Amino acid sequence: MDPYKVLGVTPQTSDDDVKRAYRDLARKYHPDNYINNPLSDLAEARMKEINEAYDMIMNERAGKNGGPAGQQAGGAQSGPAGQRQYTGANAGLYSQVRQAINQGNLGLAESLLQRISARDAEWFFLMGTVYYRKGWYDEAGRAYTQACQMDPANVEYRTALNNLNMSGGYGGYRPMAEANMCDCCMQMACLNCCLNACCGGGC
Description:
The chain is an all-alpha fold. It has helices at residues 3-7, 15-29, 40-64, 91-102, 106-114, 121-134, 137-150, 155-167, 181-199. It has 9 helices and no strands. Helix 4 (91-102) runs antiparallel to helix 5 (106-114) and helix 5 runs antiparallel to helix 6. It is globular and about 45 Å long.
């Protein structure tokens, strides 16, 4: 796989334009756009390919620029959520979550995280990484911030938040909530009032 071809960019493309190309493709192929759609599996596979291509490019550039080897856009080392040894009650689940994120299975990662009731710094970091991969940058920023507040000495958490801030990711795509019938009626009533005011008559 040529990661540059996947994102539609070249090795000469600036980092900002690579990030912009990635965000545009993420909006287009995000799985939430294909719920109950026969193309959902293809969209999920394409999204995984886009994520992997972006990571490959940013890893390569981080290495050339003297950055830590294996650093990801999400701020972790050795993969989007890295490889880490856990101890404690949630050790098994956290390991599974990181593995699911590394494999691009964000639905599974989020489902596993929802099973954990005691939400510590690691929980917020991993959920932030899931949000980041979905393109929900505002939510990712809040989760990373919470992780840093709970464990301010953790370099992985701080790097994730700093990378997100530097990428200008805030305000990223999030699927639009479905409007209910009351919302539609209110909008139609407002529109009718505007037409009456402007045109001197209703429908």
